[in-house]
Amino acid sequence: MRLLIVACIMALSCSAMAAECVQVTLRDVNGLAVKTDKPLFGFVMPEGPPLLDYGIVPGTQIETGTSVPCPSELIAAMTNLFNESCTTDAQRAATVKANNTTLENVNKRCKDIYSRLHPKP
């Protein structure tokens, strides 16, 4: 049992070290910083803004800052997002509908999340 726990911790640590994250500041429509209840970190994606594990109001801008190691909580949130949105055809179809987008866009985003969570050495 201890070996399993150590292996899980090491796997999460490796993913956190391999994935890219940045500090994030949210800005309102006037460019003023939006106060948040915790420091924000974004999961860097190949295209577009980083993904956040934090609800943002429509119209809010995401300002990226310094590169930082990915917090384990953010890695877990991105893994959950992938597992809940990307692993089956039905999940991807539901994601298309929920986000008013195309299956092509969802498939690309799923592939990008996977490749960021599991980078090739």
Summarize the structure.
47% of the residues lie in helices and 17% in strands. By secondary structure, it is of the alpha+beta class. Helix 3 (89-99) packs across helix 4 (103-117).
Number of strands: 4
- What value does the Rg take, in angstroms? 16 Å
Straight-line distance between termini: 28 Å
Q: If you average the pLDDT, what whole number results?
A: 85
Biggest β-sheet: count, sense, barrel? Answer: 4 strands, antiparallel
Helix content: 40-55%
Shape: globular
Number of helices: 4
Beta-strand share of residues: 15-25%
Structural class: alpha+beta
Give me the strand/helix succession.
HEEEEHHH
Strand order of the largest sheet: 3-2-1-4
Q: Segments where pLDDT lies below 50 for 5+ residues?
A: 1-17
Structure, described:
Helix content is 47%, strand content 17%. It is built from four helices and four strands, in the order αββββααα. A four-stranded antiparallel beta sheet has the order 3-2-1-4. The protein is globular.
